[in-house]
Inverse folding.
């Protein structure tokens, strides 16, 4: 596999085409027969599965063999390197016609993130963490003047010595979309818990590159963090 600017250009174009064909026309237009409930009470649609299969085929054609995807999980966690795929992060938003949905991918090697991608199909914004680019241009670092975000009970306790005042902004029901709001300067902290590898690792990849603080001891991409309540926050 070759990970370079051409790879990300080509991947952006592919994500745009897949979204145009399967995601955007069906945003908020899902029939009940196209929705299933999984064992963890989360929802999956026919289009999650279609998009996931398209992404798996694309990345395999580009040299990524060990792929862990949301709807087709595997035993590939034992490998030293693997790609994770979340075909529609924010499935409930997708079902309800809320424009806060993303496609997320991460590539992990030896417990380190090589790159992650978060793609907003509604705005056709493609972010990747290999160099922290948006639509293939560098993102300027944000200078946060005040804290913005949502604090659950455990986060309020953690933040009592970190944040004195903040503007409340509810979660979007998409981890990836919350990260986009951080990248755009519209959110300065977020908490993640009960997440899966295909949600958490892309978020961690961007937030670690942005030098966000965390209650984690390190930003190693190991599976022990999946059971933790993780807090990420910017310093003003």
């Amino acid at each position: 596999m070759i990970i370079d600017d051409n790879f990300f250009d080509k991947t952006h174009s592919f994500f745009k085409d897949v979204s145009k064909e399967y995601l955007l026309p069906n945003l908020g237009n899902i029939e009940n027969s196209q929705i299933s409930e999984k064992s963890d009470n989360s929802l999956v649609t026919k289009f999650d599965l279609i998009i996931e299969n398209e992404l798996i085929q694309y990345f395999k054609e580009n040299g990524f063999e060990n792929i862990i995807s949301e709807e087709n999980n595997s035993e590939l966690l034992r490998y030293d390197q693997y790609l994770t795929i979340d075909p529609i992060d924010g499935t409930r938003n997708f079902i309800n016609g809320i424009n806060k949905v993303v496609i997320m991918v991460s590539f992990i090697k030896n417990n380190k993130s090589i790159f992650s991608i978060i793609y907003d199909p509604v705005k056709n914004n493609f972010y990747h963490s290999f160099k922290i680019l948006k639509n293939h241009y560098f993102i300027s670092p944000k200078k946060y003047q005040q804290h913005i975000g949502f604090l659950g009970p455990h986060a309020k306790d953690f933040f009592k010595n970190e944040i004195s005042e903040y503007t409340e902004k509810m979660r979007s029901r998409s981890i990836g979309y919350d990260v986009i709001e951080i990248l755009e300067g519209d959110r300065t902290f977020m908490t993640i818990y009960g997440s899966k590898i295909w949600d958490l690792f892309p978020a961690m990849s961007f937030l670690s590159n942005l030098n966000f603080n965390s209650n984690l001891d390190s930003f190693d991409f190991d599976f022990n963090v999946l059971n933790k309540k993780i807090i990420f926050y910017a310093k003003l």
In short: Helices lie at 5-23, 46-61, 91-96, 153-159, 175-183, 197-209. The CA atoms of residues 35 and 45 lie 4 Å apart. The mean pLDDT is 90. The first strand starts at residue 35 and ends at 37.
